[in-house]
């Protein structure tokens, strides 16, 4: 089966007065490339998160995000009352000496001074993390399902183009025989135009003609191209998606098409080769997004 590298998964949960949203997006890439954005509280689990993602998604450019919204009235930021009072009294004394009245602006000024507001960092609750980890796996399952659906559309398009190449290969045959006859006729006509008056070694001429026609023979290329197409179908039908392997096979298909084109020496076959290349380019473009 063919599976896409494109996918999106999302999970939402509420735990310990927090609403947590997990979002994972994947795009095509040659290798696994993971970018994580997590709150400081969960930063220690970054390596574990990357392993879970790489085991499940295998390949692709992955963006992983955790968003946390507090549902309670408590905050991690606290006002240090003793320090604030100390600042305020000092400012009040300085104001009295300078003859400046003390009012609410003095309190605002004190609030901006160092260490008035302190942040208390909470430690990670392992039970909370177990719940989050389960939801990360759920979001990854959603991506995997998304990839399967995208893969069906890719498979239809890719195999459709390979089948077109396969059919075009059969269309070459009618022109192949007439091409050889045309080459023979042209050589004979050219030889006659030289007016050699029979001074031609027929055996040597036939040997040279056979050697020349062998260079134009595309039977081996046709057999190999046919085999490559069949191998492509076989690989695409495997249980595990193998985009890299299909990419290598498409390269081999391209080599045979190019060789047929270089040996063609016939406008009709050249047109068929151009159509083959067009279908192959579509295959290669779509394979960039296959897992």
**Broad CATH class of the largest domain:** Mainly Alpha
- The rough form would be described as elongated
Percentage of residues in strands:
5-15%
Strand order of the largest sheet: 1-2-4-3
What oligomeric assembly is this protein in? single chain
Q: Which segments are poorly predicted (pLDDT under 50) over 5 or more consecutive residues?
A: none
CATH architecture field of the largest domain: Up-down Bundle
The helix-strand sequence is EEEHEEHHEHHHHH
**How confident overall, as mean pLDDT?**
86
- What is the end-to-end distance? 10 Å
Number of separate helices: 8
Q: What is the share of helical residues? A: 55-70%
Please compute the radius of gyration using only Cα atoms.
Answer: 36 Å
Instruction: Say what the CATH topology of the largest domain is.
Output: Four Helix Bundle (Hemerythrin (Met), subunit A)
Number of domains: 3
The main pleated sheet reads as:
4 strands, mixed
Structural class: alpha+beta
């Amino acid at each position: 089966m063919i599976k896409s590298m494109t996918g999106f998964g999302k999970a939402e949960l509420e735990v310990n007065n927090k609403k947590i949203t997990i979002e994972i997006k994947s795009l095509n890439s040659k290798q696994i490339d993971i970018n994580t954005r997590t709150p400081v509280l969960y930063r220690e689990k970054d390596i574990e998160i990357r392993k879970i993602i790489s085991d499940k998604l295998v390949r692709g450019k992955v963006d992983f995000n955790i968003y946390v919204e507090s549902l309670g009235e408590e905050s991690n930021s606290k006002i240090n009352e003793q320090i604030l009072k100390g600042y305020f009294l000092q400012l009040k004394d300085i104001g009295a000496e300078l003859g400046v009245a003390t009012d609410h602006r003095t309190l605002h000024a004190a609030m901006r001074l160092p260490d008035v507001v302190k942040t208390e960092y909470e430690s990670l609750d392992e039970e909370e993390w177990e719940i989050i980890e389960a939801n990360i796996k759920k979001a990854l399952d959603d991506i995997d399902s998304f990839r399967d659906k995208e893969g069906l559309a890719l498979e239809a398009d890719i195999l459709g183009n390979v089948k077109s190449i396969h059919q075009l290969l059969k269309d070459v045959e009618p022109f192949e025989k007439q091409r050889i006859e045309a080459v023979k006729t042209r050589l004979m006509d050219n030889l006659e135009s030289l007016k050699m008056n029979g001074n031609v070694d027929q055996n040597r001429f036939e040997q040279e003609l056979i050697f020349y026609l062998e260079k134009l023979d595309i039977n081996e290329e046709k057999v190999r191209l046919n085999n490559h197409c069949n191998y492509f179908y076989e690989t695409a039908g495997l249980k595990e998606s193998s985009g890299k392997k299909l990419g290598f096979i498409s390269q081999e298909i391209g080599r045979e098409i190019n060789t047929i084109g270089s040996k063609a020496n016939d406008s009709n076959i050249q047109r068929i080769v151009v159509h083959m290349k067009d279908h192959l380019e579509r295959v290669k473009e779509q394979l960039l997004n296959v897992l």
